[in-house]
Amino acid sequence: MTLTSNMISTKAITKTVTTSQGELQILQPISFDVKAGETVAIVGASGSGKSTLLGLLAGLDQVSSGEIYLDNQPLHSMDEEQRARLRGEKVGFIFQSFMLVQSLTALENIMLPAEIAGLSDARKRALEALEQVGLSHRGSHYPNQLSGGEQQRVAIARAFITRPKILFADEPTGNLDAANGDKIENLLFDLNQQLGTTLILVTHDSELAARCQRQLKMHGGVLEDTSVTALEGQRHAG
Amino acid sequence: MRGNAMALSLSWRLFRHEARRGELTVILLAIVLSVASVLSLSLFSERLQSALSDKSAEFLAADRMLGSDKPVPDSWLEEARQRGLAVSQRNQLRSMAFANDKMMLTDVRAVDAFYPLKGVVKVSDMPFGLPQETRDLPALGEVWIGSRLFQVLGISLGDELEIGDKAFVVSKAVIELPDGGFNLFGGDPVVLMNLADLPATNVTGPGSRTDYDYLFAGEDSALDDYYAYLKPQLNRELHYWRSVKDEDSPLGRSVKRAEQYFLLASLLAIVLAAVSIAVAAQRYSQRHYDPVAIMKTLGAPAAMVRRVYLLQILFITLLGIVVGGVVGFGIQQLIASLIADKVPVALDTWYWRPFFIAIFTGLVCAMLFSLYPLLKLFSVPPLRVLRRDLGASMGSRSLQFVAAGLAIFLLMWAYSGNLTISAILLACGLLLVASLMLVTLGLIAVGRKLGQGRMGAWQLAWARISRRAMDNSVQLISFAVTIMLLLVVLVMRNDMVQQWRDQLPEGTPNYFMINITQQQLPKLEQHFVEHGVDIEHFYPVVRGRFAAINEETIRTDVSKEEDSNSRGRQGLGREANLTWSNQLQHENHVVEGTWHGEQSSEGEPRVSVEKEVALRLGIKMGDLLTFNIGSEVVKAKVSSVREVNWQTMQPNFFFVLEPRSMANFSPTYITSFHLDSDKKPELAGLMAPFPTVSLFDVDARINQLRSIVEQVSMAVEFILVLVLCAGTLVLVAQVQSSMDERMQELAILRTLGAKGLLIRMSVILEFVIIGMVAGLMAAMANELALYLLQTQIFNMQASIHWDFWLLAPLVGALVVGILGALSCWRLLSFNTSELLRRMI
After folding, report:
1. Domains within chain A, CATH numbers bracketed
2. Reported ipTM
């Protein structure tokens, strides 16, 4: 395939799981593209398949059929090791439950992706990132000594430390109160804009979704609408 | 390279932080426990064994003895000295001693300056006097003689005594020789003299029968090597080699059993350690599912994750080994110094083997038992970051059980070198696991029924048990295995110590009287009663020559027939002591045929024969035995074979005849009685009216035996305490780790507003039920393990221990319940949000 400016490209991807009642297709064939630098929200009810889709796009899970390209790399034909390497090089993550390593300090948590990627200036970068998220005084604290909002800021700093080309966020404000949620949203979009990162986020929050340029709506494993623009989205939401 | 450095740095940081935050406590504790218990047990038992075998070596007056009918080449002794062994010579023979125109057959022992190599000689300045230890030996021209000889020959200290052609001055009374042996009938009074004096007596000429005994002492390995050198040159007809560890001596048996017990206890400590490490490693692995998923998500290759966690386990193991080594050494030192005044353990001797074993155990346990949990950990998919319910995707638990069982078996086998013990323990363990699986299934079924209805503590407890069936089965198994191991060690110790003590109960007869005539008997009986000394039974004795089996005359081989004081080695003795009775003596058991009893029979009179004599002389049931008594001939048919407990310190007999066969003979009587040591001075007065009755003092021998038994028992008790501590710690680790799994549920219940009391009661009930079932199962498995161990390894009588069937479930319920309550208390002391936060 020729190189495109698409950061993500999917062609009829499906996901089937085996349950005690037999095979269950949790994603119907889905095809769409995400351009580099684009911000996309995947919305839908619980159980609609949005987290499954995120897992596939981020290379955390394997498609059952179809093709999926991340920065022109064929994720669908890679094994776990190759996908891990790709994630390390190009992908950042933010999760609803923060997913910080409890026995590492805030600073060490931020350093982790840079260390895994073998960057020699991991510590310097982490200190900068900590500063950027306004937590330089909390670097030596462990996650359970931080509030939810602070933990998510650490997670954001961790996500950006390797300057990933694409960032996946799974309900980034889901565990936070409104005030903290807003702060986190702002931080996320600000950093995203500064660094020109492609952002794909899964959310229930229509306001958060509305801040994205495009929304992908999932319903029962089917992608219903791929053409909603940011403006239209705002109109929908309004 | 870069990845390696990163893995090292990350894993070191993780290790440091987690250790500081107390997250490694359980697994660290498990390793510390395994190393400490194995080290302290094996170090202590090594020291104790060396103390005990020193002590028991005193019975031989040496570690090993070479007995010979002729002097052995000097080169043999030279070789022993070259190998660093201490060597001593003792010549022993029977000879008449003369004094005051009287004479008596004596047991002459001529010894060199090195005698005894082990133990001490005890003497006194008066016959039957209080013993005093001495390092000296009779000077040239002097002899020390047994108390009875003074009595019989009517001599006192300073008098002359002739042996053969030489006259000696009697300078002391011998009260106790370490190798005195104990044989009532063959036991002629001792005459101890200097070896250099022996030739002048001219009693060792042709026709005499002298035992040339060579005593050796030194390191076990040097002794074994020396025996290996000697063995090809020995002639079975002339020579024999003895060691205190020979199973044929009662003491050897006790020491051997104690050693096996220590071995068993150490093995069980290893198993306990392994179980606790397995539990802890499981918990460790589960707690690290998230970090692994995060690292993988962030792009860490599988090799890096593996390196990080293997290194971390290695750090934990090393720290555990170091701390465990220090703790174990401390415990051992403490115990050894606590009992130092009772058991002479040498604290300054250094043994390397226990250290190697402990380190090896720590390494192998930590590595093998964390292997499966680690493999599971490595298999955690990165997708867990999105789907928290995803755990490790590894094969079945049965693989884990097989691997764990195999590892434990290999460890036990490698450590003990004893396939049988290892196999018995493993088999019982497997059986226990299998039956526990079944019980768990049963519990689930029962739980479904019992858990129905309004949600009280009882329902909640049962609901949890049945819902968490698989987890509970693992927990149940580990509880039950732990309790079973503790039971085995406990019951084994009780049985063993009891059997030892039974051999020598308080009030064991410490004096024997023989040669009581029929006329003296009533007077003597009355006299003793008046002086407050109880005598239970007088046995009639007639001496007779055992002449023929089934009319076939017994070949009288001089060298075999002469008696010596070692029971059973060299034949019966010139004359057998025949007794008669209708009553089977206490501690005698008929093993073949039937006891002749009160009923008189037609035809040949019947006789009961002691088992070992029957075996040695080839006497079978129904054989016709002929005894010559004076000029009379008595024939009797073998109607039973008895097993006799020779350690009871009561007169025992090879041959017990039916009374009617002996009606025409006038016997002398023999008896034993107990006299407290504070009444010892009264002895002379007690015996004065009966100068012809011979008295034997076996007090010294009994005390010697008893002190060994007590020391061994005490050592065994300490080992038991150690193992109990180890077991309790394992239980604590198990409850702690299972508490983690309950935390979430507790948090939810708490959040929903459940009262603390309800939660606490339900948790306590759950643990009580699990503890009770585990205890019951453990009692059953214990019975099987004990039966196999006692019959196959310890050569003891096995019995069923019903009391433990009740005790084990009760104690199991109590202990596990209390531990559960304590951990639950800790959890409930957190407030709900803290509890929820801790769940992450």
Report:
1. 36-48+79-237 (3.40.50.300)
2. 0.90
